[in-house]
Structures are given as structure tokens and as C-alpha cells.
Amino acid sequence: MTIRSVRGVHDILPAEASVWQRLERVARRVFEAYGYREIRLPMFERTELFARAIGEVTDIVQKEMYTFEDRSGESLTLRPEITASLLRAYIEHGMHVQPKPVRLYAFGPVFRHERPQAGRYRQFHQIDAEALGDDHPAVDAEVIAMLVEFFRQLGLADRLALEINSLGDAACRPGFRERLAAYLRQHAAELCEECRERTERNPLRVLDCKRAECRPVLDRAPSLPDHLCAACAENFGRVRAHLDAMGIRYSINPRLVRGLDYYVRTAFEVTTTELGAQNALAGGGRYDGLIALLGGTQDAATGFAIGMERVVLLLAGEAQPVRPAALVIPIGERALERLLPIVRDVRARGVGIDVGYGDRKLRAELQRANKLGVEHTVIVGDAELDREEAIIREMKSGQQRTVPLAALAADLVALGGQA
Ligand code: HAM
Q1: Mean pLDDT (whole number) for 149-158
Q2: Mutational test site, ligand 1, from 310, 313, 314, max ligand atoms within 8 Å of CB
Q3: Does ligand 1 come within 6 angstroms of the Cβ of 126?
């Protein structure tokens, strides 16, 4: 029996790698222009970190964490998100003394034991960005602008929507929660079982239910933006004014709530209609108070995470096969010895070259060239060696020309430039 990968966990194969690399390249370019610096974080932490940060009554903490005891009996958890780890590092390394906001980003795998389906995995990858230590509404707008710019540079702007909401704060949210829970209890009979259960545990999450049977009740439910206190309403207005001033298009989704408990005020998601139920490509918001909750300073903070798999799904078909500029075919040991140093030199200049090892028939090597998709081959046998020459063959037309071996490196570099 062969051993297969774990359910919900996938390999990223070489054919897709160029799309993944492009996401990372674009993210780095955009984020660095906004002043963000990369931080690399561990993939597992003490369980308590996530339980405290994400919230004990969330699905993530109650049902989805990969928690295990290590050999010294300590409870550890594979990170179900990056934000908590990043804050732990911010606190641990005293980064609050740096000029604020402290802007950080991180990439990498994230683990949640969810039911796998298209666009939903148990190991997936996030690009995470956080701005720490400044509560100005312009920071929220700037973070959103950066996220929008990331998608614009990927050419996805027209296929996505930006939704925003304000979740209120400690002054207004508890009152809203009570009012919402009372309304939901009144209509319990018209709600699905999960919604009824959530009404008691985490009523805001009920707003997020996507089942058709619950829609009529939820459509008439009390709305968050209508219940904000004056300070939150003013804050939300200022975030929107900054977005408007930057010409960023959004819609206000009063039912947008997030699956993590730490948010206050601004919350947002970038969504698509192209991926079925898994419609969120990125999500985030403000989470003032979380740094203090984790034992740090009273620093405000805001940020987001992008789900890389979902972005890759939208870009499917854009994968660029990576091809060498040429396949160099020595015929025999003597030619191999003469060609390897030249190949080494060309590769050192950053040009991709594949090479045969002199032990296959020319016909077999030409077939290999076709399979590799290379446009040119270089053929050198004993006769060419004696004349200090190489044959360059254009694969599509079959046309061949002869060049001096002394000039071969330069010719190959030029071919690399065309590719
Ligand atoms: P989140 O909404 O839980 O937020 O996850 C962010 C993104 O990760 C989602 O929008 C989605 O694209 C992707 N994602 C989530 N679960 C899965 C899954 N099972 N399979 C594939 N992709 C998935 C957070 O994680 C927050 N830490 C974001 C944040 C940062 N808020 C403030 N700062």
C-alpha cells in the first residue's frame, strides 16, 4: 500500500508554482511600498495563545485546531491563523518601542480542521499583514487600500468585491448582542439548528449563516450599523471618508461578521462570486485591545489575511511553464567534458540550460527536448569537437546553424534573453 497525503492537505506541484511565486512577488512589492517588513514566525505555538486571542467560543478554537501534546507534555497547536503568532512576537521582542504603526507581514501555512471542499482545506496558506500601535481610522483605510492594490496588480480588481462593516466596540456591541439574541430567540423556530445553537453561544455569527431557510429571519434582524454608539459611528464614517477620498469602491454589508472574536469596529472582506460557498478571498479588521489581552501594551491594531489557495484558484490557467532556454546535447564523454564548463558558465549568468550526459542517442535527446518544450538544442559530437564547433538547432523549424565553441556561451546567453 502506498501512503497518500492527509485529507484536506494538498501538494503545490511545479506546474502551479509560478502562480504562487507571482502572488508572493506581488505581495512583497505592494506591502513593502506601504512600509511593511517581513517577519517569519513559527508554525506552532502554545495552545493558550490561540485560545485567548481567537476566543474560546469560536468554531476555530472549539472545533478546528490541531492541538497535540508534545513529548514534554506541553499543549501545542498548529497555528490556525498568523495574527496571534505575530502579536506574540511583537510583544516578546518589545517591538512597541519602534515608530508606530509597526507594519509587519508574514506568509505561510495555516491549519484548521474544517470539512474539506473546493476552496477549503485543512492546511492552507495565508499572506498576513498587520499595522500595530495606531488607532487612526486612516490606518484601516490604508490597510484596505493595500489589499485592494494587491488584487489590482494581480489583474483581479474587476472580479472581486470589497465589503466593509463596523462591529462596534465594548460600549455598543454588548447591547446589540443582547438585542440580536432576543430577536433570534423569538424566531428560533424559523432558524436552522446551528443558528439556534449559536444564538446562545455567539449570536453575531448567526448573521453569517448562508442557509436559505434562515434568510427571511436574518434579513429582518437588528442591524449592526444601526446600533453603533456615537464614537463608533463617527469612526466608521471617517474610515469610509478615507476610502472614498482614495476612490476605493466598497459596499457596506451590515451582516458581515468575522469568525474570530477579537475584532472591534472596522471589519472587511474581499469576496468573489466565482468560488461558490468559499467566497472570501481575504478578511480582516481592527482588533484594538488584543495586544493587551495577550499581555502586551494597550496598542491598537488592524490588519488582514489573504487565503492564497483561493486567489490561485481564480488565477488558474495563468500558470507559466518554466522552460530552459536550450537543451545542450553532448554525444559521448569527450563532448560532455568540453560542454559542462560552458553550461556551468551560462547557468551562472542566470540563464536556464538543460544538459544531456552524453550517454543517450541523439534521437532520444531530441525527443526529450520536445517534451521539455525547449526551442533550441545544442548538439556536439566528435566531428564538431574536432572542428571546435557546435550545432544550434531550432526545434520547430529543424533549421541548424554552426557556431564556434568559443562563442557558444554568449550565444546561449542571447537565447536566454529571447526566451
Ligand atoms: P480569516 O477570515 O479566518 O481571517 O482567514 C483569512 C482568509 O483565509 C479567508 O478570507 C480565506 O480566504 C482563507 N481561509 C480561511 N479558511 C480557509 C480554509 N479552510 N481553506 C482555504 N482558505 C481559507 C484570519 O485568519 C485573520 N487572522 C485575518 C486578520 C489579520 N485579521 C486581522 N489581521
Answers
A1: 97
A2: 310
A3: yes
Q: What pLDDT score does 419 carry?
A: 60
Picking from 25, 28, 66, the residue whose alpha carbon sits closest to that of residue 47 is 66
- Mutating to test ligand 1, I would choose from 45, 81, 274 the residue with most ligand atoms within 8 A of its C-beta, which is 81
Give, in degrees to the nearest 5, the angle at Cα 409 between 406 and 411.
100
Give, using CA atoms, the residue closest to atom 18 of ligand 1: 120
Dihedral sign for Cα 191, 192, 198, 203, please: negative
Q: How far apart are CA 406 and CA 390, in angstroms?
A: 9
What are the strands of the beta sheet with 376-380, ordered from one edge? 353-355, 326-330, 376-380, 389-394, 400-404
Radius of gyration of the chain (CA): 28
Domains of the chain and CATH, by start: 14-172+228-318 (3.30.930.10), 326-413 (3.40.50.800)
Q: Is the beta carbon of 301 within 6 A of some atom in ligand 1?
A: no
Our answer on whether the CB atom of 55 is closer than 6 Å to any ligand 1 atom is no
Give the DSSP letter string of 253-284.
-TT---SSTT--SEEEEEE-SSSTT--EEEEE
Would the pTM count as exceeding 0.90? yes
Per residue in 330-380, pLDDT tens?
Answer: 999 999 999 999 999 999 999 999 999 999 999 999 999 999 999 999 999
